[in-house]
Amino acid sequence: MATPLPAGPLREPIPAGPYPRLVEDDDGALHVLSPPDTEPEPDPDPYWERPRLSAVGTELPLTWSPAPDDSDDTDPTEYPPGAQRAAWVLINGYLEVLAGRRPASQLAGPATPAAARQLTQISADPKRRLRLFRLHVIEQLPGRAEVVVLLTDLDRDQVFAVALRLVHMDGAWRCADFQGVW
């Protein structure tokens, strides 16, 4: 049999416990205390309405600089350093031109005049999805590097080759020749 509640006001405090719980007001009446609202206040400026900040502009110049002598990402046997990085930057710029995200004229900056004419004739083909598969840099003579790049067409399961010749001029690597094998 259940024990009836005392008719008078409760003398001891009601222990804290799970909600809902009973609390006694000043008149001695018991009321059900609702759980506290744990939901955070709504954001007055939600992320989808905030202005978007871009860390990278849409049209940056395509440049590279030689790696510092104490850099860990260069091959110590490579002289002058930075041919692999220069080839990587140029090929990524080439892929952006093919995807239509960069104008071809930006590829002419790090190139000799003869190669600049070749590079500026590249036209965008946004339907092709190419990805860098391999990049080989062979430096047989100091200051000259031959680069072979393999690109994968993600839609057609084909591999294409691009050959570059880089020369070290005026303290930077420049593209001297560019040929694509499709």
Written account of the structure:
There is one protein chain. The protein has helices at residues 83-99, 113-120, and strands spanning 21-24, 30-33, 130-141, 144-153, 158-169, 172-181. The mean pLDDT is 76. Strands 3-4-5-6 form a 4-stranded antiparallel sheet. The longest helix is centred in the middle third of the chain and has 17 residues, at 83-99. With 182 residues, the chain is of the alpha+beta class.
Which features does this protein show?
single chain; 182 residues; alpha+beta; four-stranded antiparallel beta sheet; two-stranded antiparallel ribbon; 14% helix; rod-shaped
Average pLDDT level: 76
Largest sheet, strands/sense/barrel: 4 strands, antiparallel
Query: What string gives the helices and strands in order?
Result: EEHHEEEE
Strand order of the largest sheet: 3-4-5-6
Compute the separation of the termini in Å. Answer: 91 Å
β-sheet strand percentage: 25-35%
The secondary structure category is alpha+beta
The best one-word shape is: rod-shaped
Number of helices: 2
Question: How much is the radius of gyration in Å?
Answer: 34 Å
